[in-house]
Write a structure and sequence with these properties.
This protein is α/β, with parallel strands linked by helices. The chain is 44% helix and 22% strand. The strands form 3 sheets. A 6-stranded mixed sheet has the order 8-7-6-11-13-12, sandwiched between helices. Helix 5 crosses helix 13. The longest helix is centred in the first third of the chain and has 21 residues.
């Protein structure tokens, strides 16, 4: 077994997985998994740059993760950075900071590479299950982008499009620097229009209609599952491989988009960093389900982070 560490730095959060990995089978024995909301993508859609305060939040999390990696004695580390750092003019500043703290250069992967890592992490455990038909459509709804991957034993098509929960919120649900509480019908319609256009784009290179099982990843999807199960607090074990029906996703999405900040914050399973962006994230999920006619979504806690760890092994 080789002790590996994987870091996934997205638009909204940065996450760490330390695990013992079998290089031959790719089996992972999880030792430490954690997530910090850093909102690295704050304002990137508008300014094209990573904000100084967003960089400092991210570097603070990196310093914490460096201590954890050292404590566990990980032999290998891979740091993958996604949407926000792809889009930013000053991403070199981000790269230098990570290199100084962790001793590795962050790999700013393409959307397609991101999609394949997500697919590997999400579907490796599903092999052999006869209750989930192939091919799978894996959707990873991030802060800045959403990745679509269709595949069975191999990837048939992958595409990344810019409809993450943070990007959609900042583009349409903010006025004078404040998130609308709640947004009006016109603002929600604008989000929906962007999502539909992005789905049209994704369908050009990914055979969405061939999918038989929808697998949903990342915080927007897992939070919807937690709400659907009425969990008093976030519970990874209850969420992993749970199934949420289309009707329940629609009901939760409509409720989130009608609710105030205080009402969303009062949900026991809601991470404070998702309170303002969960409505847009849920709407992305709902729109995908409607586009492909999915009756349910299978929710996975294992995603790109696990795919990164597998790649290190």
């Amino acid at each position: 077994m080789t002790r590996v560490a994987a870091i996934d730095c997205g638009t909204n959060s940065i996450r760490l997985l330390v695990a013992d990995a079998d290089p031959e089978t790719g089996e992972l024995v999880e030792l430490d998994r954690r997530m910090t909301i850093v909102r690295l993508g704050q304002g990137v859609d508008r300014t094209g740059r990573l904000a100084p305060e967003a960089l400092e939040r991210t570097f603070a999390a990196c310093r914490e993760y460096a201590a954890v990696i050292k404590e566990h004695g990980a032999e290998r580390l891979r740091f993958v950075a996604t949407s926000a750092s792809r889009d930013a003019e000053n991403r070199d500043e981000f790269v230098r900071g990570v290199l100084d703290i962790l001793g590795v250069e962050p790999e700013v992967v393409s959307g397609e590479q991101e999609a394949e890592l997500s697919f590997t992490g999400a579907t490796r455990e599903l092999a052999g299950r006869d209750d989930l038909a192939k091919p799978y459509l894996v959707v990873d709804i991030g802060g800045g982008s959403t990745e679509f991957v269709v595949g069975d034993d191999r990837v048939r098509g992958a595409r990344s499009v810019d409809i993450g929960c943070v990007r959609m919120t900042e583009r349409h649900l903010v006025r004078d620097g404040v998130v609308l509480d709640p947004p009006g019908e016109e603002q929600v319609a604008a989000v929906r229009a962007d999502i539909e256009a992005a789905l049209d784009l994704a369908e050009r290179s990914v055979p969405l209609s061939e999918a038989r099982t929808l697998v949903g990843l990342a915080g927007s999807v897992t939070t919807v599952s937690a709400i659907a199960q009425n969990l008093p607090a976030y519970d990874s074990e209850a969420i992993h491989h749970s199934r949420v029906s289309y009707d329940r996703v629609r009901e939760i999405t409509e409720t989130l988009l009608r609710s105030t900040h205080a009402e969303r914050a009062a949900i026991g399973s809601m991470h404070p960093g998702r309170v303002d962006v969960i409505g847009a994230g849920a709407l992305v999920l709902l729109s995908i389900m409607e586009r492909i006619g999915a009756s349910e979504v299978v929710v996975s806690e294992h995603d790109i982070l696990d795919g990164i760890a597998f790649s290190v092994a």
